Amino acid sequence: MSQSGIKVAESTEKCEGLQDELMAFDASKTGVKGLVDAGIDNIPKIFIRPADEVAEELNYGHSNLQVPFIDLNGIEEDDQRRKIISEVKNASKDWGFFQIVNHGIPQTVLDSMLDGVCRFHEQDAEEKKKFYSREPLKKMKYYSNIDPFRKRAIWRDTFTISMMTSCDIEPDELPMVCRNSAFEYINEVTNLGKTLFEVLSEALGLKREYLEVMECGKGRTFTCHYYPACPQPELTLGTNKHTDPSFLTILLQDQIGGLQVLRDNQWIDVPPRPGSFVINIGDNLQMVSNDEFKSAWHRVLTNKVGPRISVACFLAGVMNPAKVYGPIKVLTSEENPPIYKDFTVNEHLAKFYSKPIGRVANTNALPMMWIWGSHAFPFTKQRELDLWRESTWNMDLLTDSIDPRIQEWTRDNKTICLYGGDDINWIRRFTTTVRGIATTLHVPLEMIYVGKRNSKDRVRRCHEIIDTEKLSHIFPLKDFYDYIWFFWVRLGSMWNSKLQHGMTVETDKIMQEIMAMLTYDGSEQGWAVFSRGLYEMTKGKDDILITVFDNFNQWGHRVDHPDKFVPELDKEISGVHPEHHCNRLILPGHGNIPERVVCSECGRTMDKFVMYRCCTD
Ligand SMILES: O=C(O)CCC(=O)C(=O)O
Ligand SMILES: [Fe+2]
């Protein structure tokens, strides 16, 4: 593993000409299952692995060694627990992989989960297509794993239940075909995760609750794979070898087989064993344990028989609000200094998705996905530059698919107001005034609150009040913080992406706008952005907006058509010159920090300070 904690699998084959085919396959939304149902005998080119990758795979040997098999029976009895802890410790150090039985989850729960996943993938294609998506905020999505960051399609379809940023899921959020089985499975495996983290903590010589207190078990994703039988498995081989970007992975596999772990350059089968789970240490646990535990390479071979079904539960740690993890202090010493830098779950995921499987690696693959969604394909530096060239600063770029209502309002050419801050008195005054003016001027206005980063409790209270007093639209109350997080993470990604391409606030208009948004968020004040459809935009802060709207009588008469509202407002806002302003741009300390930044409003070089903060409110 490199210092950044990323393991890299390289291949040199180029794959020009496949992109269109990959895109068409993705657009069909029927996945590999769709191809098999259509009765193909020869697998499409997009699945055929290049010669050098095949050669590389053939370089490894195969061994009949046995993956450690650990019986958890009696885990609460002292003697037995000591034995289990010692077995888990050895397996985690030497292998990073082990299988467990007698974990306490009834066989019926495991069987129903596998059945439910099978039903999901084998349901009517039209029904399944409704879930086809890669949107980060979607809790439930299905996609065929043309892993969008790589260049070859993988012979499998996947359905994920994501609790990366929020903790809970309600049964009615799960698809009908597997609702009860999935809900029960999620709860059982979550508890098993707690038990395993306790054992792993003790295996590291730490207090039983250590890893749980570090919240390693948060940020869960249940990834439900379906590997159809393949007519030519020798041409596609299987999934790329990889390590998991999690703390821990709890995997349930059916009886087909195909999973292998790499040890001393030899592939070793991880055989299906009824009633067992496969447990593997992820990259994050390797890093916080300072290499005491290993995150092992593994892969799944494609098979002539199938379908093979597996469910991987990734326990990835806290993503929102970003939590910084690093080698656990008591596990390091002068003789054993920290091998890894501090990291956030997001940063590590971004690195994971930018591993160069093809020749061209782009460390920005995940941020690109966040900014442009699937348009970012094939995630190269060149594509990133082209996308920036094509982008203009408008509501679409600012909000993308965060909330479908915003897209609808944009299409309907409505005037949209996005506003933020966490001062409820300002919010009350601002929303009431602006709505009153819009009514007077017959401007079709939709206002939506986008809150403030790092102010979860105050923003929650604002949300509740805005909702009760019907001041404006809000993001869905239950998951509001996920939406707010994503809104700001996207803006942060845009900033970093521009910075990496050498663009600066002085020369780049979009960067000025992004910076203005980030400085609004860094201030204690309220702010708002107005746009008419995809056309004009204007924005302003707290006191400037209040001044402009208080003076409405002096300029309102010029708005003789709803389309003139935003341009006239813009003129007014630009005419107000506050006597004093001080902008603050707050960037995360572990990201890309530019040497020099100029204020997007006055052009002066900004002073740089270092801030440490212990909490998010
Ligand atoms: O399907 C499997 O057995 C393993 C899948 C896997 O490695 C993964 O999803 O990361
Ligand atoms: Fe994996």
UniProtKB/TrEMBL annotation:
Please list which residues make up the signal peptide.
none
Stretches assigned to the Fe2OG dioxygenase domain: 212-317
Q: Which UniProt keywords apply?
A: Iron, Metal-binding, Oxidoreductase, Vitamin C
Pfam families in the cross-refs: 2OG-FeII_Oxy (PF03171), DIOX_N (PF14226), SEO_C (PF14577)
Molecular function in Gene Ontology: 2-oxoglutarate-dependent dioxygenase activity; L-ascorbic acid binding; metal ion binding
InterPro entries reported for this sequence: DIOX_N (IPR026992), IPNS-like_FE2OG_OXY (IPR044861), IPNS-like_sf (IPR027443), Oxoglu/Fe-dep_dioxygenase_dom (IPR005123), SEO_C (IPR027944), SEOA (IPR039299)
Would you say which domain of life the source belongs to?
Eukaryota
Q: Has the keyword Ribonucleoprotein been applied to this entry?
A: no
Q: What are its GO biological-process terms? A: coumarin biosynthetic process; phloem development; response to molecule of fungal origin
Which family is annotated? Answer: Belongs to the iron/ascorbate-dependent oxidoreductase family.
Instruction: Tell me the protein's name.
Output: SIEVE ELEMENT OCCLUSION B-like
The upper taxonomy is:
Eukaryota, Viridiplantae, Streptophyta, Embryophyta, Tracheophyta
